[in-house]
Specification:
By secondary structure, the protein is mainly alpha-helical. The protein is 48% helix and 10% strand. It has two helices and two strands. Helix 1 packs across helix 2. The longest helix is centred in the first third of the chain and has 25 residues.
Amino acid sequence: VINGTRKRSKLCENFYENVIKIQNEMGMVFHNKEMSLQDLKWAVYILVSRVLTVQRGDGEGTQAKVLIPGIDMINHDSKSPH
């Protein structure tokens, strides 16, 4: 887990320059603020923490990464205070 987090952090750092370049070219500034490296890492980690790996139905045993909105609520206890 630690190595995966470090690898993901380094990928974010390498990708960040491209994000800023695209953001500037497209004029995509949110609330008059450029995306920070911390913003990018937060977004990536939120996404990664919600992605599921599922078997594809192609008969070859390949896998796919998917996001299914609300899936994390399936194991939610309605009586929980959280």
